[in-house]
Give the backbone structure.
Amino acid sequence: MSAPHRLDRGHTDDLMSFLAASPTPYHAVANAAERLEKAGFRQVSETDAWEGSSGGKYVLRGGAIIAWYVPENAAPHTPYRIVGAHTDSPNLRVKPLPDSGAHGWRQVAVEIYGGPLMNSWLDRDLGLAGRLTLRDGSTRLVNVDRPLLRVPQLAIHLDRAVSSDGLKLDKQRHLQPIWGLGDDVRDGDLIAFLEEELGLGAGEVTGWDLMTHSVEAPAYLGRDNELVAGPRMDNLLSVHAGVAALAAVSSGDLPYIPVLAAFDHEENGSQSDTGADGPLLGGVLERSVFTRGGSYEDRARAFAGTVCLSSDTGHAVHPNYAERHDPTHHPRVNGGPILKVNVNNRYATDGSGRAVWAAACEKAGVPFQSFVSNNSMPCGTTIGPITAARHGIKTVDIGVAILSMHSVRELCGADDPHLLANALVAFLEG
């Protein structure tokens, strides 16, 4: 039997590299910025005065990036076409006093970030990565991308009912990883280890934002390599597609100003200075209007004509739990990206937004599917409703259907990332 037709996997190969190189939101935006720089974009500082020239620009703030391309023909009231996404994923994050241990084991104290599938973090080889703040106020990225920590599961001999009654994990007691042996646990050991990793002097690090990650590499899976397994697809898959799409359209005349807005802290509510519920996006868009000679009236006109695609992963139908899905909406992997709908505004999509998305997919030659939650199951949410409410911008929720969402290792179709990127290109072009 011959293998089925497959799309060019170059995009998916690149996605896998992006996932592996981006264990934290800080690494993700640094890698996104590097790719945009190669496409001709240039970083602008929020503390500098901006000038209204055309071309590609981006702002970095913590684990967020806003990037936009101003065509030469853009007027101050030219509307925006925005691809929105988020850079954070559920994981285990290091506490302010990280050094702990008991009974001859050295451990790292961690806090649960977001809503991870906690069992997926057990018995995994974990690395440690994040951002270090130095005594002089500068920051350094760190990535110990090798087996360093492990959250060991209790042997079945000591919990005979686990297979029949289910695994029950206490977030405080059962998820603290080990990273060595010894009874002489000393405050500062973990940070001293990281200072040595980076060749820094003792005591140079005075602040840290650190988190664990699985060191297992992304990989193709399945008889015909039609699936991809990997970490942080929710939602670096969308960030990667948005970067690729923005780079692809950043030349020539366009009827809109294309934008990528990748926020941090979606997994815990988006309420931060780098989250979708913060002022970052609105401030950047307004400054872009005003530096091109625009007025408040131009700003209002630009926002009124703007559309945002909130791109986040969604749920593919699970073959072992099909009853958990809506009986008439069963998105399949490699069936194309999904349009997400919820009439209670957990997603921002309405009928006119659907028409915008359908037009982009038709232009790109990309099939799409519809997702709606089972009425008996609570529906998740995204940055979509937040963006729509905060900025008065028409917003449509879309994404790629995956399995094992919020696991340390998620699963998608190998063709869907490329299909999403193609649809985003068509949307940004207008």
